Amino acid sequence: MPRTGQRLTRLDPASAPAMLVVAAVTAMAAISDGAHAEIFPITPGTADRIQVLIDEVAADGDEIVLLAGDHTVASALDLRGRSILLRGELDRGGAPISRLVGQGATGVLVCRSGETASTVIADLVVTGGDIDLGAGLLVNDASPTIRGVRFQSNRASVFGGGVGVFGSASAPRFEGCVFADNRADLVGGGCLNGTDASPVYRDCFWIDNECGLYGRAMYNQIGSLPTLEAAQVVGCCEVVPPESFMDGGANEIEPTCSSCRADLNCYSGVGSADLGLLLGAFGTGLESYDLDGDGVVGGSDIGALVAQWGACPE
After folding, report:
1. In the chain, what's the furthest Cα-to-Cα distance?
2. Angle, CA 71 vertex, CA 69 and CA 76 arms, to 5°
3. C-beta of residue 198 within 8 angstroms of C-beta of residue 171
4. Beta pairing class for 205-207 and 173-175
5. pLDDT digit string (tens) for the chain, length 314 residues
6. Which residues, other chains included, contact 150 with Cβ-Cβ below 8 Å and sequence gap of 6+?
7. Roughly what angle, to the nearest 10 degrees, separates helices 299-307 and 272-280?
């Protein structure tokens, strides 16, 4: 028997008029096609209704639409591996006007059940996350598609204020996303990409993110394999280590600050950590580490780094 959207009326009576329309449309589609996806509109309010839909109602191929306004999150929404579209609404200018707002000590979104590219999160503002890892979105051994999402004003006490990506099976794709005003108390204010993770960031924008140590826009742990394409990062020395990503082209990223070239970890001074990064690049042609500009990272670059040892000039 064809599934209908009428079940949602028990979860959200305010959506009944809209769901009657959806039920009629999907029933017609079922007659002609024998199969169809359902659309579940959710009015602003507490986000536990969204989790109920994900857990008990929505099936693969379905769409959950968060109508314009604030949807408050007391416990991180878990996509549970479902191949669904979770999206918001846009204003006339194309900006998202549906917000997932963290309340208290919680993350906002979690993908940790082997989600694939068919799990899509789109057209939302994700804000108010406050937890240790991945306050806006935590991805662990999963590869969802994140499209047109603005991660703003989230805070992680450890890594990944906006987004934290962990696990060798993690290859999420971020398209047209914005990372603004997020903070990590340690590293990766906007994004943290963990060892062996291989996320793709395409046409994304970073501005005004902060961290306690380094990697205001992005920190890439050793062995991570992120790809950046048509990415724009406001400020210098925001992605750490510099050149720690696959360059897909058309990026606007200033890897180091001209006033302190040897500050490779962007920690406002030159010290042993910077020397370690340079030694790791020894013998390569990585431009950011080639402090003397002779085309290869070598002994003379160590000398140039030692000459800048100490605090960077104001």
Report:
1. 76
2. 150
3. yes
4. unpaired
5. 334 333 443 344 344 433 433 343 344 334 334 457 999 999 999 999 999 999 999 999 999 999 999 999 999 999 999 999 999 999 999 999 999 999 999 999 999 999 999 999 999 999 999 999 999 999 999 999 999 999 999 999 999 999 999 999 999 999 999 999 999 999 999 999 999 999 999 999 999 999 998 899 999 998 999 999 999 999 999 999 888 999 999 999 999 888 899 998 888 899 998 999 899 889 999 889 999 999 999 999 999 999 999 999 87
6. 95, 96, 124, 125, 126, 177, 178, 180
7. 160
- Evaluated on CA atoms 102, 111, 36, 53, the torsion sign reads negative
Residues 31 and 74 in one domain: no
Q: Are residues 299 and 223 in the same domain?
A: no
Measuring CA to CA, how many Å separate 87 from each of 84, 102, 124, 193? 10, 17, 6, 24
Could you tell me the two tokens for 305? 């780094």
Which of 255, 270, 289 is the C-terminal boundary of a domain?
A: 255
ω into 17 cis (within 30 of 0): no
**178 and 233 fall within a common domain:** yes
- Do the domain assignments include residue 57? no
Query: How many folded domains does the chain comprise?
Result: 3
Give the helix/strand (H/E) hosting 252: strand 252-254
Tell me phi and psi for residue 95, to 5 degrees. Answer: -90, 145
227 and 313 fall within a common domain: no
- The pTM of the full predicted model, rounded to 2 decimals, is 0.86
Q: How far is CA 246 from CA 145, 202, 227, 280, 304, in A?
A: 19, 12, 4, 17, 27
Collapsing DSSP states into helix, strand and coil, what is residue 219? strand
Q: Is 165 exposed, middle or buried (0-12, 13-18, 19+ CB in 10 A)?
A: buried
Question: Which residues constitute the domain of residue 264?
Answer: 259-314
Q: Which residues contact 244 (CB under 8 A, 6 or more apart)?
A: 220, 224, 226
